[in-house]
Amino acid sequence: MSITTLLAIPLIIASLFSSCQKENQTPEWEWPEEEEQNKDNASKPKYIWVDAAANFPDFANSRENITRDLTIAKNSGFTHIVVDVRPTTGDVLFNTNVVEQVEFLGAWIGGSYQRYERTATWDYLQAFIDEGHKLGLKVYAAINTFVGGNRTSLGTSGVVFRDPAKKAWTTELNLTGGVTSIMDADKNAKFFNPVRDEVQEYICQILEDLARYPQLDGIVLDRGRFDGFESDFSTYTKQKFENYIGESVQNFPNDIIPPGTKVGQLPNPLPKYFKKWLEFRVKVIHDFMVKARGRVKAINPDIDFGVYVGGWYSSYYDVGVNWASPNFVTSSKYSWATSEYKNFGYADHMDFMLIGAYAAANRVYGQSEWTMQGFTLKAKEVIMGAAPVSAGPDGNFFYPNQVPAGVNVGEAIANSVDACINAGDGYFFFDMIHLKQNNQWQYVKAGIDAANAQK
């Protein structure tokens, strides 16, 4: 969920807008007693995300700046810091022998995209843990899960550009011109193929090292998904899919998804294996989440394990994720789902879930998707109490050039707290950089103060 990607969210939303469980399984996360469910807003968590690249100019080499901004976050009412320690380069900002440390990242400052190098030798993640805990904050570490490198105007970085063996793990895309390696496609973030066993093992090893931080409060998986609707169409994945359905696909990929097909532009009738393909993909991600949780908890059983996902469940099948409860019967609501699709909802394996309620500043309240409140309500509906839900806005929509005419941005930010925290179990704001660049801390503080005062 890099800033570069999020700046394109309005276009992504426009393209997605038109898109339209194992039963009786005991959830690993047990919902609290009723009196705990109905606790007041003051005791609900308030999360703020700290994107690695966007905040790198301030934080890469300055513990003092980390302390300064965590103090501001604390005084604004936030209780949980989510610090990104594996950006889309796939390199890391914590101690591990699995992958190299981040040496530089690009960030937009003053209207230009610039390179910022890390010269400090102190542990970036540990600094957030130490400074956050001094302030009484919980500190969670986030990783961009299935990425291994990126290409920007500053050049290339990441393991897929250094290691030919890992380059071979990258995803192959079903584009109009044919199946194409993402390394040859016009995409910044270079995704791995989540289907590959060695990719899953590699990520689990990284997660194990994160879990070895004894004072870390939680781990968040971002981009725990396929790259998109066109991913992955490699021979490797084709064979895995054929093993799953027990037959050969003769007309590949057309009998699954015709080349270049976009979400919301599905052929009618649907291709022969389309629904089963969606089912297969969510099973891949479900099974990985179960595996990853197990590996993390084996190292540190007390650490919180959760995910960030976008709130647009109605079209989230495009990235191969069913983040609902396995008790939510997806096929009863959505025609693209098989009856077995529900079995691979993974909410019951999460200790918490962060939901991107990324709607425009004039769409705070509402009952449906594409409003902040509606995204939260929909998340609660499909998660069905399997895990607590904290949802909230993308601060990109509160920039002056994004706010519709007639909207008071301060009121919109404050109201986002009211809309999301009362519809859900907490509040989530992406990203700290937006509040800093626009000097909008006071608005989110007003919203949190008002929410905390409600009984």
Can you put this structure into words, describing what you see?
It is a single chain. By secondary structure, this protein is α/β, with parallel strands linked by helices. The chain has one domain (45-168, 188-225, 274-453): Glycosidases (TIM Barrel), CATH 3.20.20.80. It is 33% helix and 17% strand. The protein contains 15 helices and 15 strands. A hairpin with a 2-residue loop joins strand 6 (147-152) and strand 7 (155-157). Helix 5 (63-75) packs across helix 6 (124-134) and helix 9 (197-211) runs parallel beside helix 11. The longest helix has 26 residues, at 274-299.
The number of strands is 15
CATH superfamily: Glycosidases
CATH architecture: Alpha-Beta Barrel
State the shape: globular
Assign the CATH topology.
TIM Barrel
* % residues in beta strands: 15-25%
Mean pLDDT metric: 92
For the report, how would you describe the main beta sheet? 8 strands, parallel, barrel
